Amino acid sequence: MTEPLLDVKDLVVEYPGSGLRGKPFRALKGVSLDILPGETVGLVGESGSGKTTLGRAVLGLAPVTEGTIHYGGQDISHLGRRERRALASEIQVVFQDPYSSLSPSMTIEEILAEPLTASGTPAPEAKKRVGDLLDQVGMPSDAARRLPREFSGGQRQRIAIARALALEPKLIVCDEPVSALDLSTQARVLDLFIEIQERTGVAYLFVTHDLAVVRHVSHRVAVMYRGEIVEYGDGDQVTSAPQHPYTQRLFMAAPVPDPDRQEERRIARRAVLDAEA
Description:
Blueprint: E1 6-15, E2 25-35, E3 40-44, H1 51-58, E4 66-71, E5 74-75, H2 81-87, E6 91-94, H3 108-118, H4 123-136, H5 153-165, E7 171-175, H6 183-200, E8 203-208, H7 211-217, E9 220-225, E10 228-234, H8 235-240, H9 245-253, H10 259-276
Parallel strand pairs: 3-8, 3-9, 6-7, 7-8
Antiparallel strand pairs: 1-2, 1-4, 4-5, 9-10
Helix pairs in contact: 3-4, 5-6, 9-10
């Protein structure tokens, strides 16, 4: 049996309350999931569900109160800053907003070469690698000399993906990476994620609020609600025949192009909400 690349066990994340007597806020309540090498696990839930907190904890950006996060068999739950930097070549991130995630004053070549030179890659080799990265994400080679403001949102997100790929990571945390894009651009960027995975074997933790997005890219799907995973299983099953009432609500809230089917979903969603009331 293949060992997980990422293994999260009983993870609890708490933030201090406001004021001297403020009660701590528990953002994650004993969450467990694993990701195999080359696999995509979709993490889906509404705003405030805790999905982004889980991604941040994996990246070392949220405090681990209880539980463990193992990567490649190593406990990374409480790594120091130096150890985290050493892990950057293994775990990378693609953020939600392609407009704010790229430095506006740097050329694309400088943005993509920065993690390479910081890791000790000689400048000539880094420059060649930049060309290869742009090619991998379907960008022209002359993009290297231009600034981020000269590109569309979809192109900027491709550049952000290229930056994440620069150090050849084994895991990428994708934090709502297509939510700021229009629908046609979303589809192209999602296809790019799949193509890159098939070519490189990289694994994804794909964080999103959209069931349709995780259906497109995920092998398995975990559904989060109020800091807990309420449903976890095969991607096709969870996104087409959900068992938990919360997942059913997400499914029924997703828009469909057929007006009659859309009305049927609205009626079914109201019935679920009435049953929970």
